[in-house]
Structures are given as structure tokens and as C-alpha cells.
Design a protein that fits this description.
One of its GO terms (molecular function) is peptide-methionine (S)-S-oxide reductase activity. This is Peptide methionine sulfoxide reductase MsrA. It is an enzyme of class 1 (oxidoreductase). Its EC number is 1.8.4.11. The chain has one domain: Peptide methionine sulphoxide reductase MsrA (Peptide Methionine Sulfoxide Reductase, Chain A, 2-Layer Sandwich), CATH 3.30.1060.10. It is built from 7 helices and 8 strands, in the order H-E-H-E-E-H-E-E-E-H-E-E-H-H-H. It is globular and about 35 Å long.
């Protein structure tokens, strides 16, 4: 069961017993990132302190109820739920940029096509402003940026078997990630900045 469900059930149980939640205990925010394969984006953000939950899904298309086998016009993306008192949106942006290849406009690594292109989907005007500023900084570093930065439309959760795939099928996941050369390409693009903020936890 995802941690967000467990936390919600625990909170409901405490309230039903008359407990008062401390101020700020449920202060969470969400951020949405498209960085190629959503299994990998989930894994990367789960290694960051302050992230409470990651959910794979689809975003950006026009159809209702997209699925893995029918999500034309959508990107694979991950919704990140985090505690802003423990990790800032700016830090999330740093982790995102330095775990993808922002110069690639045709997909990410071995995954090609629109569904695997990169994007930052802001969930508030403040996020959009920060994301635009970070885009400008990355452009200075790399010379070009193919990542779209825009306001988030509706996010659709992916099928259950995609959630936490790296935990459910660790051998298959590692084989995929290595074979796709995700880590190798990120290191080629970013050098010492690759996987900023989570490098010590990368397998």
C-alpha cells in the first residue's frame, strides 16, 4: 500500500479517537515532473529526504482515462508529494534537472517519442516562477534546454503495476535502467553535477 494511503488512514483513525493533529503535521505540497520512464523518476525522487510519496501517471493529453497502451498525446510523469518544511521546491527542481538529459527533444535515453520527453508541470504560480528561473539557469549551464515548463493540466494515475515498480521488480528494473544507459547519459551531460542531491543513494 502506498505511504500516502497509510498516512491518510492513520490520520483519520487519530481524529476519530479525539486526537488533535499538531499544527503543520499535514502540510504537504505536490510537484509534477516528466523525465522519461516514470519508474526511474519515481525511484530517483524516493531517494530524496522530505519526499513523502511518488505516483506514476500520464499528463498533457486530451483523452479521458489514458492507459499504458493508449496514452497518445500524454507524457509519462510522476506526481511528487513532499513536506515543504523538509525539502524545498527549488531542491526538487535541482534533483529533476540533474537526473535527466534536458537537451534531448526526442525522448529520454533508449525511450523515444513524445511520451518520454521532459517537462516540469507547475501546480501553482509560485512553482511556475521558480521553474522558469531554474530553466534559465540550466540553459546557461548546457546551452540549450528542450524541457517544457508549463502549468499542470489534469494528472491521471497509471495502472497499479507501474507504481513502485523498482521495488516490486528490482532485477528487471535494474536491467532496464542499465540497458537504457540512463545513469551513464546523465553523467555524460552533467559530469560532477549528475544526480545532485541523491547521488549517494544511486545504485
Amino acid at each position: 500500500m502506498k505511504r500516502k494511503i497509510s498516512l491518510a488512514l492513520a490520520g483519520a483513525a487519530m481524529l476519530s479517537l479525539g486526537f488533535v493533529m499538531p499544527a503543520g503535521a499535514q502540510n504537504t505540497e505536490t510537484a509534477i515532473f516528466a523525465g522519461g520512464c516514470f519508474w526511474c523518476v519515481e525511484s530517483d525522487f524516493d531517494h530524496l529526504a522530505g519526499v513523502l510519496d511518488t505516483t506514476s501517471g500520464y499528463i498533457g493529453g486530451e483523452a479521458e482515462n489514458p492507459t499504458y497502451y493508449d496514452h497518445e498525446g500524454f507524457r509519462e510523469a510522476v506526481r511528487v508529494t513532499y513536506d515543504p518544511s523538509k525539502v524545498s521546491y527549488d531542491t526538487l527542481l535541482d534533483v529533476f534537472w540533474h537526473s535527466v538529459d534536458p537537451t534531448d527533444d526526442g525522448g529520454q535515453f533508449c525511450d523515444r517519442g513524445y511520451a518520454y520527453t521532459t517537462a516540469i508541470y507547475a501546480t501553482s504560480p509560485a512553482q511556475l516562477k521558480e521553474a522558469k528561473a531554474s530553466e534559465a539557469a540550466v540553459k546557461q549551464d548546457l546551452g540549450t534546454v528542450a524541457t517544457e515548463v508549463t502549468t499542470a493540466p489534469r494528472f491521471w494515475e497509471a495502472e497499479g503495476y507501474h507504481q513502485d515498480y523498482y521495488k516490486k521488480s528490482p532485477v528487471k528494473y535494474k536491467f532496464y535502467r542499465t540497458g537504457c544507459r540512463r545513469n551513464a547519459r546523465v553523467e555524460e551531460v552533467w559530469g560532477d553535477k549528475a544526480f545532485m542531491g541523491i547521488k549517494d543513494h544511486m545504485g
